[in-house]
TrEMBL record:
InterPro entries: DUF6693. The chain crosses the membrane at residues 12-34, 70-90. This is DUF898 domain-containing protein. Pfam families: DUF6693. Keywords: Membrane, Transmembrane, Transmembrane helix.
């Protein structure tokens, strides 16, 4: 079994440009939603190849579906002067993988 990610440089640049603009417009608040978008971006472009059969992965999270989770981690990040954001990024990946499926 192998994992293959199909991500082009142009996809990455486009994704980053959108989030940089959103971060400036929202004065950094968008950065609390970025990990959800980032993990979904990667997972949705990933396939699992098993015995020559390629099966796509799909992440079933949405950016605003877990607003309570975002608010809680925003508070933790502010109280810890940004250190909590590092843990937040890992927790979002855990959440994204647990809410993904192989088609």
């Amino acid at each position: 079994m192998n994992i293959k990610a199909d991500i082009s440089i142009m996809d990455i640049i486009g994704h980053l440009v959108i989030w940089v603009i959103l971060s400036f417009i929202t004065l950094g608040i968008a950065l609390f939603f970025f990990p959800y978008s980032f993990s979904k971006f990667i997972i949705n472009r990933t396939s699992i190849i098993d015995g020559g059969i390629e099966r796509k992965m799909e992440c079933d999270i949405d950016l605003f579906g877990n607003l309570g989770h975002v608010i809680l981690w925003a508070i933790i990040s502010i109280v810890t002067l940004g250190l909590g954001y590092i843990f937040y990024f890992y927790r979002v990946w855990n959440y994204a993988l647990n809410n993904s499926r192989v088609l």
